[in-house]
Specification:
Blueprint lengths: L4 H15 L2 H9 L11 H11 L4 E5 L5 H9 L5 E5 L11 H11 L5 E5 L3 H7 L8 E6 L5 H11 L3 E9 L14 H8 L7 E7 L2 E6 L1
Parallel strand pairs: 1-2, 1-4, 2-3, 4-5
Antiparallel strand pairs: 5-7, 6-7
Helix pairs in contact: 2-5, 3-4, 6-7, 7-8
């Protein structure tokens, strides 16, 4: 006998609500009953992978469950190095469920090297040695989406991008599915990034803006 449609809908809502709790979602993921999640769309992930193809020095600011990290690791050069940056603040039980999921998901891919930095994007840019300035050929920014947060990431990381290098910015524009014009990262992209003469916009997909250093 088929269950009534409203019963199935209610069950799905309950499961969705439970999965919003990080530790419960971690348990479900560990048992194979839930998947790693991402706020990026499939079209955005395909775009990121295409621009990361064959790159040797990459960074991702804002990792969450590592779905985009996995796509970038598969796409980059076999000898490539990906710097994965996320503060992974501990939850009420003293650990980050998101960090556990991300590390396990990314470790399943045996391609290139991933260096983890548990900090903010702005702090990571300050921590990196001066010898690497101008060497990144791909940077994906998906960290602090406030106006000042993106300003700090932009000012810190653009000096590390090589000529011809790519910077991709998530939640940097509205799309047909998501109207986010008032979000700080959208306003900063509109006010500053698209006007930065060092870079030119080469592609937009959903909420993603891709720019290339001149």
């Amino acid at each position: 006998m088929h269950q009534p449609h409203h019963t199935l809908s209610k069950a799905r809502r309950i499961i969705k609500a439970i999965r919003r709790k990080p530790t419960i979602h971690l348990g479900l993921w560990w048992l194979g009953l839930a998947k790693a999640e991402s706020q990026t769309s499939e079209a955005e992930r395909e775009c990121l992978a295409r621009h990361a193809e064959g790159k040797k020095c990459l960074a991702e600011i804002g990792v969450w469950h590592g779905m985009t990290t996995c796509r970038l690791r598969r796409a980059m050069a076999p000898e490539g190095v990906l710097v994965a940056v996320d503060p992974y603040r501990p939850g009420k039980f003293g650990f980050s469920a998101q960090q556990i999921i991300a590390h396990r998901e990314v470790s399943r891919i045996r391609h290139g090297t991933v260096n983890w930095l548990r900090t903010t994007g702005g702090e990571a840019a300050r921590q990196l040695p001066s010898t690497i300035h101008g060497t990144f050929d791909f940077v994906f920014v998906d960290g602090d989406h406030s106006y000042e947060g993106l300003r700090e990431d932009w000012e810190g990381w653009t000096k590390l991008v090589a000529p011809g290098g790519i910077v991709a910015l998530h939640d940097s524009r509205s799309s047909s599915a998501r109207q986010i014009d008032d979000v700080g990262s959208v306003r900063f992209t509109r006010d500053v990034i698209v006007r930065d003469s060092r870079f030119r916009v080469i592609e937009t997909v959903d909420s993603l803006t891709v720019v290339q250093r001149q």
